[in-house]
Amino acid sequence: MKRYVYINDDNLAKDIYCDNRISNRKYTILNFLPKNLWEQFSRFMNQYFLLIACLQLWSLITPVNPASTWGPLILIFAVSSSKEAWDDYNRYLLDKKANEKEIWIVRQGIRKLIQAQDICIGNIVWLRENDEVPCDLLLLGTADPQGFCYVETAALDGETDLKTRSIPSACMGIDVDLLHKIKGVIECPSPNKDIRRFDANMRLFPPFLDNDIFPLTIKNTLLQSCYLRNTEWACGVAVYTGNQTKLGMCRGIAEPKLTAVDAMIDKLTGAVFVFQIVVVIVLGIAGNVFKDKQGRKLWYVQYPKEGPWYELLVIPLRFELLCSIMIPISIKVSLDLAKSLYAKFIDWDVEMVDPETGIRSNAANQAISEDLGQVEYILTDKTGTLTENKMIFKRCCISGRFYGNESGDALTAKVGQFHTRHYPKMKKPLYVLLLVCAWFWRIKTEIFLILTSMHLQCNMKYLTLWSSHLTGKECLWWLGNAKAGNFSSCQKEQMKLFFLLPILIVSGQQVRTFAEAVEQYAQMGLRTLCLAWRKLEEDEYQEWTSMFKEANSTLVDRERRVAEVCQRLERDFEILGVAAIEDRLQEGVPETIEILRKAGINFWMLTGDKMSTAIQIALSCNFVSPEPKGQILIIDGKTEDEVCRSLDRVLLTTRITESESKQDVAFVVDGWALEIALKHYRKPFTELAILSRTAICCRVTPSQKAQLVELLKLCDYRTLAIGDGGNDVRMIQQADIGVGISGREGLQAARAADYSIGKFRFLKRLILVHGRYSYNRTAFLSQYSFYKSFLICFIQIFFSFISGVSGTSLFNTVSLMAYNVFYTSVPVLFSVLDKDLSERTVMQHPQILFDCQSGRLLNPSTFAGWFGRSLFHAIVVFVITIHSYAFEKSVMEEVAMVAVSGCIWLQAFVVALETNSFTIFQHLAIWGNLVGFYAINWIVSSIPTSGMYTIMFRLCEQPSYWITMILIVATGMCPVLALKYLRYTYRPSRINLLQQSERLGGPILSSGIIEPKSRSSLDKDIPTDSVYEPLLSESPSATRRSAGPTQRLDSVQSQSPPHSTHTRKDN
Amino acid sequence: MELLNHSRFTQQELPACKPILTPALVMATFIVIGITFIPIGLSHLSASENVVELVDQYDEVCIPADSPDPDVVYSKRIGYIQDETTDKTCIRTLIVPKKMKQPIFVYYQLDQFYQNHRRYVKSRNDEQYRDPSASAKTTNCEPEAQLSEGQPIVPCGLIAWSLFNDTYTLSRNDVALPINKKGIAWESDRTHKFGDNVYSKNFQNRSLIGGGKLIDNIPLNQQEDLLVWMRTAALPNFRKLYGRIETDLEVNEIIKVVIQNNYNTYSFNGKKKLVISTTTWIGGKNDFLGMVYIIVGGVCLLIALVFITVYLIKPRPLGDPSYLSWNKNPASVQ
After folding, report:
1. Is residue B117 within 8 angstroms of chain A, CB to CB?
2. Buried b (16+ CB within 10 A) or exposed e, A174-209
3. B47 interfaces chain A, CB cutoff of 8 Å
4. By Cβ atoms counted within 10 A, which residue in A262, A559, A607, A692 is the most buried?
C-alpha cells in the first residue's frame, strides 16, 4: 500500500486522508457510560456481583436489604469509572491543546496561521526554533544553508540527544520564497508505526527539478511531537496527519498484565464459586425437603398450598444470595489499594535513587508488584544494563604492537608519543578512522584527548564541526549494528575514502596478529574494533556512489540492496590496527547477580555482542562460576545438522550434570544457531532452557530476544526482562515484568517498561525487598479476605439449619455491609506495612525468595488452611453463641450481635497473630477497629427507628456477653496458637527460622561463613527425626508446574536426609 | 519530596514491635488462660447452680390422647386444639425443689417453633406498629396484611397473628399466686417500637385464626404479651417471659397451675413448657458457659504442660541457621 502526497495541493488530499485532529480519547460523552460499564462487566467477578445485586432486588428471596450489595457495588464502579473519566478528560484537554495550537502553513501560496487540527496532507508547514512538530513532515527547507536541522525526539523514542535531519537533495538550494510555490509528489508507504524507517521517494514538478526521483529516508523527516532545536526555521510537507502519524500509530493500549498471584486468586475464586454452588444446591434441596416434610405443618408460616412454578427455585436462590458473601466484594478494592501502595513504596524508596543522576525508580505499572517476588528468570541485556555504556578507549594494536594496560590514561599518552615517533605515516588515517568510530560510540572526549596529545591539527571546534558534518549523508554512511562493531563507514575527505569493517574477511600473513589481538581483547571483555582502509579513485567512487544512490532509493528491500552495494566496496583493505574499548561493568553488578542467583533466579544474558566478549562479561558478572565448578557449553553450527548435533551434545551434558547437581552449567548460543534451534529443534531447546540455569545468547536480534521470553513464558515461568535500549523494548513488553534502565541509550526502554530503575544493582532491592514484601502481603491480604467472608458465611449456613433451612439471614443489613466494608477491611489493609523479615536479613539470605517463587504463601493448600480456620472459627462462634444465648436470651437481634462481635474479636486476634511486625498503624487499626465496632454499634443502637435500637447497650451491660466474647476468643485462638507454636518451634519454615535468628539476635550466618566444626557440634544436639526433614518439601506447594527449578532444588536438598547424621553418629 | 525522602513511613522503616512465639511466651499465655478460666468457669457454674428452675412440659398431658395409632392421635389433637368451643383447661401441680427468692420469672417455652423462619421473621411492619397514621402500611406483612375487603390489619404480619395465647393461673395452698404481667416487655419496645396510640384493628378477623387475640381499645404498647412475642427468637427452642411472681416460694411448696391450653403446637409436634425460674448475675440457668470455661482452661493447662514437657525433653534452639535448608549441605555434614 502506498500513499501519494501532492505537495501544496489544497484540494486533492482533503477528502482522501484524515485531518490532523489528534484523539487519544477512549470515550466520548455519549458512549462513556455504556462503554465503561461494558468494560467493567467483562470481568467475571463484576458479573457475579451484578447478578447477585439483581437477584437481591427480588424481595421474595433476598435475605437482607439489597443495599448491602448495591452499595459497595455502586461505590466500586463509581470509583473506577470516575478514575477512567478523569483520565479521559485529561487526555481530551491535552488533545485539545495540541489540536488548537496555531501553526503557520502555506495556502494558495500565502503563509497563514491556522489551528493544528486543520493541517491537511500536502500542506507546507513552517516551524520556528523550539516549535513542536504538529504532524509527520517531510523536510523541504531549513535555515541552514547546508540543509540541516536538529530535532529532539524525546517524546518519540525517549532519546534526549539532538538528532540531525537534512533536507532531500532535491530541495537543496531552492530559494526560501520559492518554497511557497513548490509542487511535487511524494510516494510513501501507508501509515505505519516504524519510527526508524521512511522508505519513500519524491519527484518535484517543474519549474523545479523534473522527472528525477529522489530517495527519501527517515533522515528527511520531522516526526510529530519532536521539537525543532538549534535551527532558526524549517519547513516541510505534511505526509501523515492526525492519528495516522508514526507516533499515533505507535500508540496503543498495552494489554494489562496479570500477575501469578492474581491468576491464583482468580483460580481460588473459581473454586470458591464452585463450592458455593454445591453448598447452595445441597441447602436448596434440604430446604425444599424440609419445607415439604415439616414446613407445611408450621401453620404460623402459612405456606400457600399451591406455589408458583418457580417455587422450587426460591429456596436455592435465597441460599445463593445468603452465600454470595463467600466471594468477598471488598477483595478487589483492598488489593487495588494495596497494590498502589506497593508501587508508591517503590517510587519513594531513597535507596533506589540513582546517586549520579538523581533519577528515582518508578513503578509505571502499579498492578504487578507481587510478580517481582515470583520471578524465576531474568533476561538481561548486556550493554548499558550490566555495563555502564560508557566507552573507554583502553587498548589498541597498531602494526603488530600492543598498547595499553590496566589504566586508560597511560594508554593515551603512550600511544600518542610512541606512535608519532615510529609511525608518522600511519597516524592520520588511523586517528581519523578512530574518530569516525568514536562518533558512533560516543567516546568523543576520549579520542579528543588522544588527538590533542598527538598535536594533531585538530581542536575542539573542528571536532564538533566535523562530527556534525559526519551525520550528513555525503560524508558518511554506516550500516548494520553499530553496537556490535559490525559496521562499515566511509568518509570522503580530499577524494580519499577510509573504510572500516570486521577483520575476519581479510586474509593473509599480517592478519594473524590482528586476529590474535582481537581474540585477546575480546577475552578481556573489551569491545574490539578493527580499522582498515583503502584508497579509492575518483571514478570508482563516482560509479559506486551512483549505485549506492540507486539502491538507497528503492522502496522494497532497501536494506538488503544497500548492504550488497556496500560489500562491493569492502575489499582489499589495508589493516591499520585494532582498537579495544572497554565498557565497564556497572557498580554492584556481580554482587547483584550473585545474590539474585542465590535467590534461585536464573539469568539469561541476551546480547548483540560477539561470543567471546559475552562469555567474558558473563564470567566477570558471576553469571557462571569459574572453572571447575562452572561449565560453559557452546551450541554453534552454521547448518541445521551441526546445530542439531551440538544441541544434542549440550543437552546430554546438561542432563548429566544436572542430575549430579554439583555443577553450574551455562550454555552459550549465537543468534544463527538460535534461529535454527527455535525453528527446527524447539523441543530439545526448550528442555535445555528448563534444565539450564544460565544461558548466554549472543548476536541476537530484538525479535529473538522477545522469542526467548515467549519460550520461557510458555514453560510457565515468571520472566523479568531488563534492558536499557530500544532494541530491548520488545523483550520488555513481552516479559511478565519489564524493567527498563533509564540509561544512556535514552528512555525508550524505561518508557515501555513496567518498572524503571536507574542502575542494574537496584534490581536486587526491587525483587528481594519490594517484590517479596508485596507478594507476602498480598498473599495474606487475599487469603484473609476469603477467611473473613467464609467465617460469616458459614455462620449463616449453620444458622439456616436451626431456622428451618428457610434461608433466613442471622445478621442484619447494616452488620453485613459494615462487616465486609469496614470492620474486617480496615485492620487487614494495614498489613501492607507488615514486614516478616527485615530487609537486611533478606539481603543476607536471598534464598528465602524460593518461598515466594514457588508460591508457598498463596496456593491451594495454604488456602485450605485458611478455609479450615474459618470453618473452625465459625463453629466456635456459632456453637458458643447459641448455647450462651439460649432460651430466654435468644432474641434474634441479640444473638446476631453476639455472633458478629465474636467474629470481630476473633478476626482482630487472627490479624494480630499473623502480623509479624506491629507498627503504630497496625496497633491503631487492629485495636482501634474493635473500638470503632462498638462505637458504630452504639450509635446505631441509639437510633430509635433502627431495628437495633438499644440492643448493643443491653448486651454490653450483661456480664455474660463479655464472658462469651472472651470464651470465643480463647476457644478460637488457643488451638491456632498452639499449632502455630508447634510449627514455629519444631517444624519452622525458613521464614520462621530467619525471624527467630533475626529477632533473638542469634547468629545470622550463611553456609559460607559457618565453620564446619561448630555445625557438627550443633548437629549432635539435634534430634534426628522429623525435625531434620528438608524444610523445603514441607508443604505440597509448588503446584504451578511439574518441573521447576525450585522443585529441583528440593530434590537436591532432600539428599541431605537424616541418615547422613546417623552414620556420622555411629562412627 | 524532602518530606517523603525522610519519612519513615515511605521508607517502610516505621519503628515496629516484632514479637515472636518464644516458648516462654506461649507457655505463659496458656498457663494464664488456664489459671483464669477455671475460676471463671467455676463461679459461672455455681451461679448457674444457684438458679432454681421448675420446668413442666404440659403439651402432652394437657390433651387427650387415647389411641395407639400416632396418626389418629395427631388428627385428634389438632381437632381438639382447633375447636374453639372446647374447654381447654388443664391443671398441673408443681413442687418447688428449693427455696426460690423473688423476683421469680414465669416463662413459657416452645420447642421446635421456628420464629426464625424466613417467611415468619420478615412478616412484620414496624412502622405500622409505631405510627398511628401508618396503619395502612402493610408491606412485608403478607399473608396477614389486610382483610379480603382491603382493610389493613393492625398489627399486621404473621408474627402478631400467631401470638401465643396459653394462659397460666398459679395458686399456692389454694391461695392465688399473682403473676405480675407489667413490665415484661423491653422498655424500649414500649416507648419506641410500639406506639402508645396505636390500636389493634381487624386483628384475627380473617377466616383463618392464628393465635391469641388483642384488646382493641388498649394501645399496642400496653399489651406486653404481644411485645414479648414480637421479639422474635433466634433459636427454634425459646422461652418468653410470661410474668413475674413477686413473693418468695418455699421449698416443697405445691403450686397448682391452671393452664388454658389454647396454642396449637400439635400440628408440628412442638413442645410447650412452663418454666418458673429465679435468676442470678448470669441470668437464667445455663451450665454451658461454665463448663466450656472449665474445659478450655483445663485444656490450656494441659497444652502448657505438654509444651513444657516437650521443651524439656527436646529443647530446640530457636533461629538456628543450620536448619536452613540451604545451609544443610550434605558434603559439609559428612
Report:
1. yes
2. beeeebbebebbbbbbebeeebeebbbbbbbeeebb
3. no
4. A607
